[in-house]
Amino acid sequence: KCAIPFYSSWVVLSKFQFGRPVGVEGGFKTQVIDAEMMLIPDPSKGAPSSRQSVARAFQKLKQRKALMFLSERRLRTMAFTSKAKDLNGLSDLTELDMPDRRELDDAVLEMIGIKS
Question: By three-state DSSP, how is residue 21 classified?
């Protein structure tokens, strides 16, 4: 099977919707019962056009370094509150801001039957 759809933001977010926290340190796990409920597209059931859209979007995504889902700037805002000028040098881009990420996610949604 093709693993490309598994890189979609929808699959990542689905893991957090159906998975479960472990311990008190922010650990998270996904058991088989959780994975069976997750929204994971099956490329073999997708239309050829949606498989091609997913593959094209993924090829674009592979050309750049992956970003975090929360920007470094947002994560460090509290730490730098007293040094606001230091925030200007940090990027506010996140993975979800990237056009290639959105293209991949749209193509995966189409593959699972969501047209708009």
Answer: strand
